[in-house]
C-alpha cells in the first residue's frame, strides 16, 4: 500500500514510550509511504527527535496546548482531527494502551473508518494486508483486513519488532496551532498509585505475585527480584483483592495484558482470568508450592517450592551473575 501513515505518539513523564516506536514499525508493514508521528502537549526534546528518526519516522507533527498536557478525550480528539485533516493519512496507528483503547474507536467512528484493535502481527496475504489479533482471552487468533481508507489499528505493546536502528536520519518538524474548545472534562490532579520504574505494560521482564505471596512481605521479595532483573512487578486479581498491592498492578482479563520476554509467576494458581493477561509471554516461569497448580500447564519452566525458600537464593544468584 502507498500513502501516509499517522501515528499518535505517547510519552510518559517526558520520555517517549516504546510502543510509539513499535507503532512506527507496524505502519511500515502496512504502507511504503511517509510515516508521521503526532506528539501533543509539551514541546519535544532532542532525544525524542533522535529516537523517532532512528526508528523510522519521517515527519514529526507537534500540537502544543495547555489542555493537551493531560489526557482528556475531548481535547485530544480535536488535535487528532486537525492532524488528520492536515496530513490526510491512509493509515492511522495507535498503541493498544489506555489512551489508544479509548481514543481510537472515537476517531474511527468520526471518520467512518475500519478499526482493528489489539494487533499482535501484520502479514501480507494475497496482495492484502491482514491483521492478527487474539480473541477468546488469547485462546485463539483471528485475521482481519480493513476495507476502505483510512486503515486504523492499535498495536499491542511488545509484539511488533522495532525497525533496525538507522543512523544519520532526521525528521522534518512541523508545529500546528490549535484552539481547544468545549472540553467537558478537566484533569485537576493525577494521583499515582502504580510503582515507579519500568512501565508494566511495556516491561521485557515481569515478576508477578498472587495470593501465595501472603501479603506485603512477600511482595517485597518480588520487588527485589524485579529490581535485580530490571523488570516490573505485577499481580493477580486475588492479590489485589486481598489488599497486598494496588489494582494498578493487576494483570488479567479485567486488568492489564502483558507480553514480556520473561514472565515469572510467583504464588499464582493460574486461573483462566489471569492467563488471559499473560499467556502470550515468550517465556513463562512458575514458582508454586502446589505441583497441581494450573499455572504449570502453561509454564515453560516450573519450580515446585515455597517462594520464601526459593526466591532469596535466586535473587542472590542473579546478583552474583550481574556483578561478575
What can you tell me about this protein's structure?
The protein is an alpha/beta fold. The termini are far apart. It folds into 2 domains: 5-176, Rossmann fold (3-Layer(aba) Sandwich); 200-323, 3-Layer(aba) Sandwich (Rossmann fold). The mean pLDDT is 92. Strands 7-11-6-1-4-5-12 form a 7-stranded parallel beta sheet, sandwiched between helices. Strands 14-13-15-16-17 form a 5-stranded parallel beta sheet. A 3-stranded antiparallel beta sheet has the order 8-9-10, covered by helices on one side. The radius of gyration is 21 Å and the shape is globular. It contains 8 helices and 17 strands. Helix 3 (73-87) packs across helix 4 (98-111) and helix 5 (216-229) runs parallel beside helix 8. It has helices at 18-30, 46-54, 73-87, 98-111, 216-229, 237-241, 272-278, 307-323, and strands spanning 5-8, 11-12, 15-16, 35-41, 59-64, 91-95, 114-119, 121-125, 128-135, 140-144, 151-155, 172-176, 205-209, 232-235, 262-266, 283-288, 301-304. Strand 9 (128-135) and strand 10 (140-144) form a beta hairpin.
Rg for CA atoms: 21 Å
The side-by-side strand order for the widest beta sheet comes to 7-11-6-1-4-5-12
Count the DSSP helices: 8
Shape label: globular
Helical percentage: 25-40%
Q: Could you give a short account of the major beta sheet?
A: 7 strands, parallel
Relevant CATH superfamily of the largest domain: HUPs
Which helices and strands, and how do they pair?
Blueprint: E1 5-8, E2 11-12, E3 15-16, H1 18-30, E4 35-41, H2 46-54, E5 59-64, H3 73-87, E6 91-95, H4 98-111, E7 114-119, E8 121-125, E9 128-135, E10 140-144, E11 151-155, E12 172-176, E13 205-209, H5 216-229, E14 232-235, H6 237-241, E15 262-266, H7 272-278, E16 283-288, E17 301-304, H8 307-323
Parallel strand pairs: 1-4, 1-6, 4-5, 5-12, 6-11, 7-11, 13-14, 13-15, 15-16, 16-17
Antiparallel strand pairs: 2-3, 8-9, 9-10
